[in-house]
Amino acid sequence: MSEKTGCVFCDFDSRRVIGESEFAFAAHFDCAIKPGHIVVALKEHVESLAAMSPEQAADILSLAARVARAAEPVAGCEKFYLVSIADAVPHYHIHLLPRMRGEAPLGPHIMGDSGWKGETGAAVREDEIVRFISSCREALAEQGS
């Protein structure tokens, strides 16, 4: 973490930056879990997806896509997984994790029997789904979206 701000992304080492856009930058992650692990972070300290502006949201995802396209042949990977959790560092960022040829898919570990969701369809009742969708639609309409 930065000595100045206490946030690893607010004062990121520019020598690690791969590319940038108006609102975001992409860099090799110092705490990489495997070769080719990249982070894409907002330049401004914004803590969550909901807190960012529509322009920031579009820009960070656009940069992530451009960097993934450029990095796939360099990393020799099939594709990049996109993950955003931001529990340890409350500054919005995306992890681009390369899936190398021959590696087992990650999806079953996240959404399968051994993952956090458990049995498909058992986690949320139909009435809860309907109520959630309706409430989200109302909230979006109030925002003018």
Would you write up a description of this structure?
This protein has 145 residues and is of the alpha+beta class. It has a domain at 14-103: HIT-like (HIT family, subunit A, 2-Layer Sandwich). The chain has helices at 54-75, 107-111, 126-143; strands at 17-20, 24-28, 38-42, 77-83, 93-100. The chain has a five-stranded antiparallel sheet with strand order 1-2-3-5-4, covered by helices on one side. The protein starts with 16 loop residues before the first strand and ends with a helix.
Task: Record keyword descriptors for this entry.
5 strands, 145 residues, HIT family, subunit A, alpha+beta
CATH class of the domain at 14-103: Alpha Beta
CATH fold-level label of the domain at 14-103: HIT family, subunit A
Average residue-wise pLDDT: 82
Estimated structural class: alpha+beta
Distance between the termini: 37 Å
- Helix proportion: 25-40%
Gyration radius (Cα, Å) is: 18 Å
Would you identify the regions where 5 or more consecutive residues have pLDDT less than 50?
none
The CATH superfamily of the domain at 14-103 is identified as HIT-like
H and E order: EEEHEEHH
Number of discrete helical segments: 3
Largest sheet: 5 strands, antiparallel
- Strands in their spatial order, largest beta sheet: 1-2-3-5-4
The beta-strand count equals 5
The CATH architecture category of the domain at 14-103 equals 2-Layer Sandwich
Strand content: 15-25%
